[in-house]
Amino acid sequence: MSTLGLWPFRNNNLLFFITFGYFSFLMMLEYLDLLLFINDLEHVVINLTENMAFSQILVRMIMLRLYNCQVGDVIAEVMKDFDKMCYKTTEEMKIVITYNARSKIFVKLLVVSVALTASSYFLTPIIIILGSGFPKIVINENMTQVIYLLPYRFHLFHAVDNMRTYIITYAVEFPFVFVSALGQTTADCIMVTLVFHICGQMSVLSMRITNINTELLSCRREMRHAVQMHLRLLRMGNTIEKAFNITLLAHLLGTISLVCILGYQILTNISKGDIGVLVPFVIFQFLVLITLYANCTVGENLLTESAKICEAFYKCHWYDMPMENARMIVLCMVRSQKPLCLTAGKFTIFCLSTLTDVLKTSMGYLSVLRSFCNIIKISSNFRKGLIYIYKLIMRKSKHINV
């Protein structure tokens, strides 16, 4: 977050506007490339492979900037919980450490996956050139043209027709690798880490509610502490949901599109036998799926731990408590029936069922896309055949006239 100028406790507006401006400018070039070649289906599919992923990163950076202070407040609250004095037993500490370990595993997986995806995508043209040289197209019988491959589908306002221009253009696009990779990991890692921490604290809270002492003085003190802790966690969870619901909506829509498009790219390259080009797409697909799985998992854990708090209020010995505390338990029961959750733009809840829904939807779109592309190819071949027959007839008619 510091590299992008987004760390809440050490904001750097200049660094953010430089990185965000650079990223936005290249994204506009990518959108322009999509508009200019909108009639070319293969070009559109390749462009959308990058476009959908980078558009998600753009939304992530914007939302982190807009909710920078709120995310900083949640991080400050989380830091207060990393103290042994906050926990009564070793079992409570183990629960928090377990959830913290889960977030660390995800961070490591995501960083490695993003690094492999970004580097393999950027280096693919270089690998192709080192393997078989620059690709060439035949213009006529005596002339061929060299194609200078670039990693991204950015529209260029200058011709890349010599080695010097090619190297400069490639170098200008090099920082895009780091900005896109950091934009991806920053938002996902901070959200997963904070949500897992809230889940750990909610698990601790449910344990404390179940074991509330029913004696008058102890019960009043423990109930007050439980209510305050519950309100604190609800406030933190609602802040996270508000800060990331647009990000999750963009992620949900982008993932449906990317799983479909990347699946089409993988199947197309397998049929063509392009194994070298296949590797970046497989790594990219793995990154998309692991990110979706992580977001669905944290959403499921948040729902589960919220439900456990509701159960804990029912399971505690409320019938042995003083009347004042028993009434308070009723209010807590009512509030805990509305669980904390992660939503995609307030439309749908992120949980493990979302994972299966996304995969089913993407596979359906993939089937439609393949059928549509086959129809386009058949119609194109049919049109070419008609043109060839027409030319052949015209030649024969000219020969008969002569």
UniProtKB/TrEMBL annotation:
Topological category with respect to the lipid bilayer: Multi-pass membrane protein
- Pfam families attached to this UniProt entry: 7tm_6 (PF02949)
A single Gene Ontology MF term assigned here is: olfactory receptor activity
Sorted keywords for this record are: Cell membrane, Membrane, Olfaction, Receptor, Sensory transduction, Transducer, Transmembrane, Transmembrane helix
Localization per record: Cell membrane
Q: Which domain of life is it from?
A: Eukaryota
- Membrane spanning stretches: 14-38, 109-134, 243-263, 275-294
Query: Does this UniProt record's set of keywords contain 4Fe-4S?
Result: no
Q: Does the keyword Transmembrane helix apply?
A: yes
Q: What are the GO BP annotations of this UniProt entry?
A: signal transduction
Chief site of localization: membrane
Gene Ontology CC terms, in alphabetical order: plasma membrane
The protein's matches in InterPro entries, at most eight in alphabetical order, are given as: 7tm6_olfct_rcpt
The family classification in the record reads: Belongs to the insect chemoreceptor superfamily. Heteromeric odorant receptor channel (TC 1.A.69) family.
Q: What is this protein called?
A: Odorant receptor
Q: Which organism is it from?
A: Nylanderia fulva
